[in-house]
Design goal:
- By secondary structure, this protein is mainly α.
- The chain has two helices and no strands.
- It starts with 8 loop residues before the first helix and ends in an 8-residue tail after the last helix.
- The protein is elongated, with a radius of gyration of 32 Å.
- The longest helix is centred in the last third of the chain and has 32 residues.
- It has a domain of 33 residues.
């Protein structure tokens, strides 16, 4: 009487390995970073500098646009 694949020792071994906690999974330690207080403070400082720079650049762009094509209502 033939036995099916599911009854074989090979299948049971395969199932056992797949049930192990980390079988077939790779660790991705480079995807995660533990931020320190200094890291977060540096990021916040950089973000504030970028916002100040952005505000200045938007103001300059608006001034250039208004010099070329003044607003319809004129200066108010």
């Amino acid at each position: 009487m033939p036995t099916s694949y599911a009854d074989s020792a090979q299948a049971r071994e395969s199932d056992r390995r797949w049930d192990l906690p980390n079988f077939g999974k790779q660790q991705h330690a480079d995807l995660f970073h533990e931020y320190t207080t200094e890291d977060l403070a540096g990021r916040e400082e950089q973000r504030l500098k970028e916002r100040a720079s952005l505000k200045l650049r938007i103001g300059l762009a608006m001034a250039q646009m208004e010099a070329i094509c003044p607003p319809a209502g004129g200066d108010q």
